[in-house]
Design goal:
0% helix; Metal Binding Protein, Guanine Nucleotide Exchange Factor, Chain A; globular; single chain
Length: 159
C-alpha cells in the first residue's frame, strides 16, 4: 500500500528496528482502569510492523500489573517477561511485556512496558484509538498514519 499525505509505510521502517522518542500521548485502558498514560513513550518501528509503544515505569500503574507466566525472546531486544492485569473480578493474562535487560542498542527500553492493543479495552495514540496488529503474537498498534500490509496475519509468517 502506498502511503498518503501524513502517512508512513511499515515497509519503509528499518530492520533492525529503530527506537525513537514520541511526544504523542499513549494511553492504555482495561475495564475503565488506566494501566498506563504517558507523553514520554518510546516508539519502536520495524519493517512490516505497525509501531509498538514503550512507556516508562513511572507512567505505568503497577498496583494492578504483575509479572505473568511465560516470556519471549526477540533477536534484537532480548528476553521479555509478560505482564498480567489483576483487576477486581477480571484478571487478564499477558496484557503486556517488559525488557528488564534489553540488548544493545535497545537499552533505553529497560523497565519500559509495552501493551498488546488486542488484550486491553482501549489503546490510544493521542486522540486516536489504535487497532491491534493482525495475529496474536506481535504487539504493534495500527493507526491511520501507518499503512501495511502488516506481518502477523494469515500467510505472513515467512516475511
Amino acid at each position: 500500500m502506498s502511503p498518503g499525505p501524513g502517512q508512513e509505510s511499515a515497509w519503509d521502517y528499518p530492520r533492525p528496528p529503530r527506537l525513537e522518542p514520541t511526544s504523542k500521548r499513549i494511553r492504555v485502558v482495561l475495564d475503565g482502569v488506566v494501566l498506563a498514560d504517558s507523553r514520554r513513550a518510546l516508539r519502536l518501528v520495524e519493517t512490516s510492523h505497525p509501531p509498538s509503544y514503550y512507556l516508562p515505569k513511572e507512567d505505568v500503574d503497577y498496583r494492578v500489573l504483575r509479572t505473568g507466566r511465560g516470556s519471549s525472546f526477540c533477536e534484537w531486544k532480548g528476553q521479555a517477561r509478560y505482564l498480567d492485569a489483576h483487576l477486581p473480578g477480571r484478571p487478564v493474562e499477558g496484557v503486556g511485556w517488559v525488557y528488564d535487560r534489553p540488548l544493545l542498542p535497545y537499552t533505553a527500553l529497560a523497565g519500559h512496558a509495552s501493551f498488546y492493543a488486542s488484550r486491553v479495552d482501549e489503546a490510544w495514540v493521542d486522540e486516536e484509538r489504535a487497532a491491534p496488529q493482525p495475529g496474536g503474537f506481535y504487539g504493534g498498534w495500527v493507526t491511520q498514519d501507518v499503512v501495511g500490509p502488516f506481518k502477523g496475519g494469515p500467510g505472513t509468517s515467512g516475511w
